Amino acid sequence: MIAVSCQGTGRHTDPEHVLQDTTVSLMRTAQGRLLTIRFDLLSNRPHLMDYYAIQGTTGAYEASRAEVNEPLVYLEGTSPEATWEPLEKYADDYLPEQYRNPPEGAGHWGSDAWPIINFISAIESGGPVDIDIYAALDFTLPALAAEASIARGGAWVDVPDPRYFTAGIGVDPGKEAPLA
Predict the structure, then answer these.
(1) Which of 37, 56, 57, 82 registers the highest number of CB atoms within 10 A of its CB?
(2) Tell me, what CATH number does 14's domain have?
(3) Taking phi first (over 0 means left), then psi (-120 to 50 degrees means alpha), and beta for anything else, what does residue 109 get?
């Protein structure tokens, strides 16, 4: 992400929380793509923690909106024309074995546990971590920019590239932004 514009609905459901009921962010990538993210934790509605929708130029994904629905996918060139298919149909081909059985008691289908498990495994084996400092900042900085955007009435806010933070320190002193 290189820039974010974010608007919120205000605090209505639970005014004691700092979070607005719903926020909608537009995020621009370096490749010129546009992402829309709606974030809602407090609205008066049945709890819907796992709804996601992704639309690209050659495919789309729609999570279930209720327990009675199933996640759907459309893959251009694979799915029948203009037909949604159950995501489960593709699990054997695309879902890594590790994620088929989340650890018992792990929240959010294991997504809370996997980064910790993978980090500990990397430390024990001496291998690389899946989420290094730059990836962690790539995940975090757009949200901080969105918060700044809301405070500025939805103005576009640049998302800094953490690879430019070092300016060569510890890598190649004197060279500007060695990791960019």
Answers:
(1) 37
(2) 3.30.360.10
(3) left
